[in-house]
Amino acid sequence: MILHELLSFELLRVIWWLLLGVLLIGFALTDGFDLGVGALLPFVGKTDAERRVAINTVGPVWEGNQVWFILGGGAIFAAWPPLYAVSFSGFYLAMFAVLAALILRPVGFKYRSKRDSAAWRNGWDWALFVGGAVPALIFGVAVGNVLQGVPFHLTDDLMPMYDGAFWWKFITLLNPFALLAGVVSLAMLVMHGAAWLTLKTEGPVQMRARRYGSVAGVVALVTYALAGVWLAVGIPGYAIVGTAVTDGPSNPLMSEVVRTGSWMSAYAARPWIVVAPVLGFAGIALATLGLRAGREVSTLLYSKLGIFGVISSVGLTMFPFILPSSKMPDASLTVWDSSSSHLTLFVMLICALIFVPMILAYTAWVYKVLWGKVTEADVTENSDSVY
What we know:
Blueprint: H1 2-6, H2 9-44, H3 48-58, H4 62-65, H5 67-79, H6 81-90, H7 92-111, H8 118-148, E1 152-154, E2 160-162, H9 166-173, H10 176-200, H11 203-234, E3 237-240, E4 257-260, H12 265-269, H13 275-293, H14 297-318, E5 321-323, E6 333-334, H15 342-369, H16 376-381
Antiparallel strand pairs: 1-2, 3-4, 5-6
């Protein structure tokens, strides 16, 4: 109880905002290269054996990597219930598209090699491509829409409402800025997948991965810069009028929010957050150079640094907003007014302190055991290779 009293409601809200970011970044750093490998699969592998090499670099680990995705969804549900309700309602069709694509991955991994048929295997290879490219794109599109503000409003009893036909909500999500953000995400994860293949393979697969990955890195750099400029000059930011109540009830309608200026005003208010986009640009640039030079371990690490910087730049730029409303700015969800109760956040933090280190330890052990390259001999001569 003493610890519960020491951790104020305000502090716990910030801690869970940070933990949510950690979970989302953890998903991008681990399952991100799985998605990238899937998107690259039909291009880096020209023969069945080459494609099996690429698949076997992620086959043993992709399920474990998705733990971060599940944890992120669970954290949103438990720590930020209004965010879960509003985002999953407005992004329902987008979420369905992501889940449908993700379902193709386990099916593709398990069924691809069940038949010795070129047409059968090629079809599943393209299914794995869809399972990698579509989520990578849609995740970025979602971030682009969040930065613009989502068109919802809240009723007096805090029920989220969206205007327009059900199918029209999905069409409006695919707006130019959101698609640009989607390209940033897709290119970045393709680069990440190429960095992973560079580390885990050799020969033709590695060479093609380096070539496609370096192109993806350049695309990620250019589109990230364009998105930043667009965000600075073309998309109004959000601000809380007056002093925010940081330890009050979770009711967004109690705050007055206006659209004003630019999201980039956050860098004038908190200059230190510029470190995030700097890390994003530097990490992607160094990973691109590493791919061109044929470096392996450092390239993957730089790729992770770039992803960390890009995702962090979004969260730090928007803080304290986590889901702004373009329809009704006062309904915008912030760190201060959309969390669970003080006790719930405290109990969740204790659970996180117990289980997250266990997941990290298990993940580290798995990667240690599976360290090393995957070769054509491994997948053709090893009876234990099922992918």
